[in-house]
Amino acid sequence: MHSNESKTLSDVPQREQWGSRVAFILAAAGSAVGLGNIWRFPYVVGTNGGAAFVIIYLVVIFLIGYPMMITEMSLGQKTHKNAIGAFKDLAPGTPWWITGALGVLAGFVILSFYSVVAGWALAYFFKTLGGSLGVGTDFVGTFVGHITNPGVTVMWHGIFMIITLGVIAAGVVKGIERTVKFLMPALFILLLALVVRSMTLPGAGAGIAFYLTPNFKELTPQSILGAVGQAFFTLSLGMGCMITYGSYLGDKEEISDNAAWVVGLDTAVALLAGFAIFPAVFALGFDPGSGAGLAFITLPGVFAAMPGGTIFGAAFFLLLAVAALTSAISLLEVVVAWVVDEKGWNRKKASIIIGVLIFIVGIPATISMNEVNFQMFGMPFFDVLDIFQESILLPLGGLLTAIYAGHIYTAKRLREDVARNKSKIQLGEWFDGLIKYLVPLGIAVVMVMGWVDIIKNYMAK
Ligand code: PHE
To answer: What residues form the membrane-spanning segments (predicted)?
Structure first.
C-alpha cells in the first residue's frame, strides 16, 4: 500500500533549475524586454519631451529598479518558492503572503490584456508581410478596424495564449529556457537591423536630435510618475516575477551581476527601440507624439514609405511579437508556479487551465474597443485592467516587497545572502539606504500621486 506518508524524498519531483547562468539571464531579460520596451517606452518618450524623460527614467532604473531586481531575485533563490510561497516561507503565520498574492493576481491581470496587444502584433506581422499596408492606406482606419473586429482580435489573442501556455506546460528548462535561448538572440538581431535601417534614412538626424536633446519644459510631475510606472513594468518588478524566476536558480549562482545584466539588457533594448523608431518617424515626416498608436498607426505608415519597408515592417512586428512572448511566458509562470508549488497541481494541467482562464478574461478587453464597448467605470475594460496593474498592483506589490525586505527580513541579511556567492558588484551600505528608504518612499509618493490623478480625471468626467 502506498499511502501519502510512505512517500520518500525521492518520490517528490525535484524542483527544476536553470541549465546555466546565461539561460537565467536570457529568461529574466526575456521577461523584462517586452511590449513595455518596444511599444510603450518610445511613445511615452514621444509624449514626454524626448531625452528629458529618458534622463529621469535612467535615474529611476538605477536607484529603484536595480535594488528591487536584486531583492526579488535573491528572495526567490533563498526560498526556491513561487511568489506566495516565498513570503509564506520567510514570514510564516503572518499576512505577508498577501504581497505574493498581489503578484499572482497581477500576472493574471497583465497577461489578459498583454496577450491582446501581442495578438495585434502577430496580426500586423502578417498584414505587413502580405503587403496590405502599402502607401496610401488609411492607417488609422485600418488600426481601428482591426481592434474593433472582435472575431479577428479574439482569434489572435487565443493563438498567442496557446503558444504561451504551450511553452509553460513544457517546463522551466524544456519550455522557457529553450524558447528564450532561441528567441532572445533573434530579437537582438531584428532590433539591430531596424536601428541600422532607421538611422541611415535621409533626414534621420532630426529624429536623433529629438531623442537626444532634452526638452525639460515638456516634463510634468506626471512624467516622473510615468517614469516610475514604466520602470516597474518594463523590469517585471513588483509582482513576484523575478522571485519566481530567481527560485529556479541554484544556491551557488550569484545575484548582483546577473541582476545588472538583466537591467542593462532591458534598458539597452528600450533605448535602441527609440533609435529604431524616432529617426524613421522624423525622416518620413511623421509625428512622434502620437501616443499608443505610434507602433500600430504611425510606424506602418513609416514602413510603407521606406525602401525595403515590407521586410523591415514585418521584422518590426515580429520583434514585437517575440518580445511579447518571452514576457508573456513569465507572467503565466508566476501563476502556474503558485498552483504547482502550493496546490500540488500538475504543471501541464495548471498551464492549460490558467491559460484558458486568462484567455477568457482577456476577451472583454479585446472587445472593449468596438460597438459592444465593454465598459467599466466609464472606461474600456482594457484600460481598467491596465490602470489597475499600473496604479495598484505593481506599486503596492513593490512597496510591500521593499518594506518587507528592507525592514523585516532586513537589508543587511539580504546583502549577506547575496554576498555568499562571489560577484563583481559588491553591495555596500548604499544598498540598505536605497531599499529601506528611497525605494519605498519613491513608490509610495508616486502611487498616491497616481491615485489623486485618477480621482481627478474621474471627477472631471
Ligand atoms: N516587462 C514586460 C514588458 O516590458 C512586462 C511584464 C511585466 C512582464 C511584469 C512580466 C511581469 O513588456
So the answer is: 21-39, 51-75, 96-126, 154-173, 185-212, 224-248, 260-286, 311-340, 352-372, 392-409, 430-452
